[in-house]
Design goal:
With 275 residues, the protein is of the alpha/beta class. It folds into two domains: 139 residues, Lysozyme-like (3-Layer(aba) Sandwich); 64 residues, no CATH class. The chain is built from nine helices and five strands. Strands 3-2-4-1-5 form a five-stranded mixed beta sheet, with helices on both faces. The radius of gyration is 24 Å and the shape is globular. About 7% of the residues have low confidence.
């Protein structure tokens, strides 16, 4: 059978062009990432450090002696988010566009596919203005994970399975306490609702986060919910927002800013776990 090469060549060209576009779609952002990483590496390698130290000392100039006892900083928190977007492609575009100034270490697709976007040892910009306990710079002490979800849909089984694999790896690698697996809403209660409708109980059963016991006690009359929320880690400067964030995580069926007797029993149980 004779083949019409004039018809085949255009088709081959289109296919090659499509493959090339797919593989090079993020080539520009990858190049920027590498250049930024090289710049940070130069800053770290410099001895003495550049633009650090004390400008003037009464006893003379500051001296530099490199120690042999140091290591790299590691994350102590893992923060879960939902993307509030409609696809992984949209999220990857958002995180590779300079003007957005937002990013995450990992993105988990609805199909369970995982995209790493920042080295674990580097600071991603996922938490924004946030606070947990005494920490007010969560970006510097955490790893951010974004789940491909518009905020009003269930999370797929593949997605949660992949997430748990990531969490198990991070927990073991960086010795992250179970209580330090939390959500964006927990650390930014006045600004963020994510991850919404999230299976926190499922994660807690696997060691990622805490959960309350099946049998609960009635709190004593001296129990103060505000103190309990603060000890757990919530920013209680806006107590209504803190209550909503707590209920979004642990109650879920009701996220009004009022604590019922049941809510208080849950809070009391968790408060003792965080002590």
């Amino acid at each position: 059978m004779l083949v019409n090469m004039a018809k085949i060549f255009p088709l081959v060209f289109v296919l090659l062009f499509a493959v090339g576009c797919k593989t090079s779609r993020y080539a520009k952002s990858d190049k920027v990432y590498k250049n930024l990483a090289k710049g940070y590496a130069k800053l770290i390698e410099a001895a003495p450090p550049i633009h650090q130290g004390i400008d003037s000392l009464q006893q003379g100039p500051q001296l530099w002696v490199g120690t042999v006892n140091f290591g790299i900083r590691r994350a102590n928190f893992v923060i879960m988010h939902h993307t509030a977007q409609d696809s992984v492609a949209q999220t990857l575009m958002t995180f590779t566009t300079p003007r957005t100034q937002v990013s995450a270490h990992y993105v988990v697709g609805r199909d369970g596919k995982v995209y790493q976007m920042v080295n674990d040892y580097l600071r991603a910009q996922h938490a924004g203005e946030s606070r947990w306990g005494n920490s007010s710079d969560i970006n510097s002490s955490s790893i951010g994970i974004e789940l491909d979800n518009n905020g009003n849909e269930p999370y797929s089984d593949q997605q949660i399975q992949s997430l748990c694999v990531i969490l198990a790896t991070l927990k073991k690698r960086y010795n992250i306490p179970a209580s330090n697996f939390i959500g964006h809403a927990d650390i930014a209660p006045t600004r963020k609702p994510d991850p919404n409708n999230f299976p926190w109980k499922v994660l807690a059963e696997k060691g990622f986060g805490l959960w309350y016991d099946e049998v609960l006690e009635t709190p004593p009359v001296t129990f103060d919910p505000v103190i309990a929320l603060r000890i757990i880690g919530y920013d209680v400067r806006n107590i209504d927002a803190a209550v909503v964030a707590f209920k979004r995580h642990f109650i879920q069926t009701d996220i009004t800013p009022a604590l019922t007797e049941w809510d208080k029993s849950v809070l009391f149980n968790l408060y003792r776990k965080y002590l």
